[in-house]
Amino acid sequence: MPDLLPNSADLATPLPVIPVSLLNRLARERLEAAFPLCWVAGEVSNLSHASSGHVYFSLKDSAAQVRCVLFRSRAQLLGWRLENGQHIEACVLVTLYEVRGDFQLTVEAARRTGIGNLYDQFLRLKDKLAREGLFDSTAKRPLPAFPRRVGIVTSLQAAALHDVLSTLRRRAGQVGIVIYPTQVQGDGAASQIAAAIRCAGERRECELLIVCRGGGSIEDLWAFNDEAVARAIRACPLPVISGVGHETDFTIADFAADQRAPTPTAAAELAAPEQAALLARLAACRFALRRQIEQNLNQRGQQLDWLAHRLQRPAQYLARHQDHLHKLQRRLGAGLLQASAQARATLVSVTRRLLLSRPDPVRQAGHLEALAARLCSAWQTTTQARYADLDRLAAGLAHLNPAAVLARGYCVVSNAQGQIVRESKVLEPGQQIAVFFQRGRAEAAVLTVFEDDGIAFAAPAIASATSPE
Predict the structure, then answer these.
(1) Per-residue pLDDT tens for 364-383?
(2) Which helix (H) or strand (E) holds 44?
(3) 20 to 30 A from 226, CA-CA: which of 127, 207, 220, 354?
(4) How many CA atoms lie within 13 A of 9 on its CB side?
(5) Residue 309, Cβ neighbours under 10 Å: how many?
């Protein structure tokens, strides 16, 4: 084990001096960085509820204990009250209270020992059934608006049954009730609940089914977190309302049911509409129907009076239409006169425009002669210009004519293949060549090839000569 005491050399070196507050802060930061959030199990002791709402207590086991603090914001979300002697599991942050230098745990959440495993099972089953589509909203069935008979799946000794029956008796005394008794807590309760739901679906004695029980701990409600119960609810041909526990309690049966009620009493209220409200609605509908009938009768009577008034004086009716016919005749005559006058004015205007646009033969003949003279002059000018262009192009072609070059004493030499020879270096002695003159040509053989100052001279031997006849 290394020696933790400073040696003489260390004592000779001055060490930094830090205040206690800085030391505690550094220790707290090291603790919080070293320990992430974790779950700690133990027994509650030394419990103290402060006026600020914070809760202070210790967690202990057989060998040690540690101080804990549960702040008010977290305590309000706990949902149950801490008591001395309870065995809990707390999700904590390891820290240090700097003011007093106390090592403590800050509690973020807590649960009773054993509930954590049940809650994990609840979450796993809920996730499994949700992936299968057992909780899809599209599969939910609508509740009947006016059920004549309602089934109840619960225990005969349950207080929830009394609440449901009293609520239905008070709200809807006309609704019949069928009870399917079953155990709702303890071993075998889940299978009995599922069997009762299947029995109700097979017997078809009612139009709606309520599955309910009162509140309790998660262990008390665990029968409604069974997979068999959820599948029986979804397989039931009747719409199912789940009213299990209190408002904060959620079970697998709530998610599988077609409608979830926060309490059994609320489930009864959802199952059947209130009789007084229905009677009031019926009375309102009766009053509205009577009023509508009276209004329709009044309107039909008024219409009948109007028709009878028209039938009583047919002569006036005919006279009124005759007056209307005379007015139409006068309007038609006035319209015809006006249309004729407009057409006549249009004809006069068109005649005047036609006379103004008639051509003058004398003036057009003079204009035609002027155009003929301009055409003849333009033709002569254009012809002379074209002849001048033709002479210029002919002189250019004559200048470029190879025959004119040959007339000045030049000749054209080609090899045996008929290719023009432009350089003497492509010729060889004894090679046959053809020499073309202005008139005629000669076949020759090359005797010697000369090259002098870039100008080559060839001495051909005339073999034969031909000339045009």
Answers:
(1) 888 888 898 899 999 999 99
(2) strand 38-49
(3) 207
(4) 0
(5) 9
